[in-house]
Every structure is written in C-alpha cells, then in structure tokens.
Amino acid sequence: MLAAVEGSVSTIGYGLAAIGPGVGVGIVIGKTIEGTARQPEMAGALRGNMFLGIALIEALALIGIATPFFLP
C-alpha cells in the first residue's frame, strides 16, 4: 500500500508546505493594516515593507515547489 502512495508524496508535501507562506502573507497584510490604522502617516513606509516581506515569503514558497523536482 505504501508503494502505491510513493508517487504522490511530493505533491502532498508541497500542499502542506504551501500552508506556511499562506499564513505568513496573511499575518504580514493584517499587521500592515493594523499599523496603518494606528498611524496613517506611515502608510507609505509600511506598504513598502509589506511588499518586501511578501516577496521573501513567496520566495520560500517557490523553493518549496522546486524542491521535489531536485530531490529523488
């Protein structure tokens, strides 16, 4: 039974790995909205930092999707 599931283990692994960046992006956006509500004059700086954080989080997701192709 385990040998039959072996081919889709990487797909299941990426599905689980995609949860982390999804939660991370949600937290980053939520905290940016909270910070903008507290200090509206900092909205520009917060938005720039938010996009930088989202880019780094998405880089982790891309590493997660590419890893199964390189590892046997």
TrEMBL record:
InterPro entries, per database record: ATP_synth_csu_bac/chlpt (IPR005953), ATP_synth_F0_csu (IPR000454), ATP_synth_F0_csu_DDCD_BS (IPR020537), ATP_synth_F0_csu_sf (IPR038662), ATPase_proteolipid_c-like_dom (IPR002379), F/V-ATP_Csub_sf (IPR035921)
NCBIfam families associated with the record: ATP_synt_c, PRK06876.1
Compartments it resides in: Cell membrane
Transmembrane parts of this sequence: 12-30, 51-71
Residue ranges of every copy of the V-ATPase proteolipid subunit C-like domain listed in the record: 12-67
One GO term describing the cellular component: proton-transporting two-sector ATPase complex, proton-transporting domain
Membrane association type: Multi-pass membrane protein
Gene3D superfamilies: F1F0 ATP synthase subunit C (1.20.20.10)
Gene from which the chain derives: atpE
Major localization listed first in the record, in broad terms: membrane
Source species of the chain: Brevibacterium marinum
Feature type site, description Reversibly protonated during proton transport: E58
Keyword Secreted assigned: no
PANTHER family reported for this sequence: ATP SYNTHASE LIPID-BINDING PROTEIN, MITOCHONDRIAL, ATPASE PROTEIN 9
Protein family (similarity comment): Belongs to the ATPase C chain family.
Keywords: ATP synthesis, Cell membrane, CF(0), Hydrogen ion transport, Ion transport, Lipid-binding, Membrane, Transmembrane, Transmembrane helix, Transport
Role this protein plays: Key component of the F(0) channel; it plays a direct role in translocation across the membrane. A homomeric c-ring of between 10-14 subunits forms the central stalk rotor element with the F(1) delta and epsilon subunits. F(1)F(0) ATP synthase produces ATP from ADP in the presence of a proton or sodium gradient. F-type ATPases consist of two structural domains, F(1) containing the extramembraneous catalytic core and F(0) containing the membrane proton channel, linked together by a central stalk and a peripheral stalk. During catalysis, ATP synthesis in the catalytic domain of F(1) is coupled via a rotary mechanism of the central stalk subunits to proton translocation.
GO MF, one example: proton-transporting ATP synthase activity, rotational mechanism
Protein name: ATP synthase subunit c
